[in-house]
Amino acid sequence: MKRALVAAVLLFPATLSPAQSTPPPASTGSPHVMLGAAQMKWGDPPPVLPKGARFTVVSGDPGKEGLFCVRLKMPAGYKIPPHWHPTDEHVTVIAGTLSLGMGDTFDTAKTTSLAAGGYAVLPAEMRHYAWSKSGATVQIFGKGPFAITYVNPADDPSKAAAK
After folding, report:
1. Distance, CA of 13 to chain centre
2. Cβ atoms within 10 Å, residue 78
3. Among candidates 75, 80, 123, 71, which has minimal Cα distance to 97?
4. Sign of the CA dihedral 37, 57, 130, 53?
5. Which of 46, 106, 109, 120 has the fewest CB atoms within 10 Å, i.e. the most exposed one?
6. pLDDT per position in the chain (163 positions), as tens?
7. What is the residue-wise DSSP string for the chain?
8. Ramachandran category for residue 43: left, alpha or beta (phi over 0 → left; psi -120 to 50 → alpha)
9. Residue 68 CB contacts under 8 Å (≥ 6 apart), including other chains
């Protein structure tokens, strides 16, 4: 009995699969990010978004190549006119309710509302618009550089600010 136990203990490491005994891969160079809500620095959104919201970068740099994650706090009644992005946009509702519509014309009757926990993927170049009746906080994940092209150039707040 004693010999069987010793043999089992000695043979146990040989039963590990290569995946179990291989060390984790080396870092890809991306920094480790771990933030508490109080550590996020909120400010005005970029000029390409309508004023009134609050904005924070969670990870990455949305202005550069590579992955990024940002959050946007929208007050009640906040609207983003029809637009599109050159890359996929992944949106998760953190708090409140976000309404999304597809197409070139803003129509609140043709939107789908997503409550906290809701998720949407908006493929590159898909025309869409967003609004929040009561306010919402959303997290946006994508591949940079982040860009917005408004269907109607007159809707672009960065162009109005430049005048």
Report:
1. 42
2. 20
3. 75
4. positive
5. 109
6. 555 444 443 443 444 444 445 555 555 566 788 888 888 999 999 999 999 999 999 999 999 999 999 999 999 999 999 999 999 999 999 999 999 999 999 999 999 999 999 999 999 999 999 999 999 999 999 999 999 999 999 999 998 755 5
7. -HHHHHHHHHHGGGGS-HHHHSPPPPP-SPPP----GGG---BPPPTTS-TT-EEEEEES-TTSSEEEEEEEEE-TTEEEEEEE-SS-EEEEEEEEEEEEEESSS--GGGEEEEETT-EEEE-TT--EEEEESS-EEEEEEEEESP--EESSGGG-HHHHHH-
8. beta
9. 57, 59, 60, 61, 62, 141, 142, 143, 144, 146
The structure tokens listed for 131 are 């609004």
> Which residue segments constitute the domains of the chain, with CATH numbers given?
40-162 (2.60.120.10)
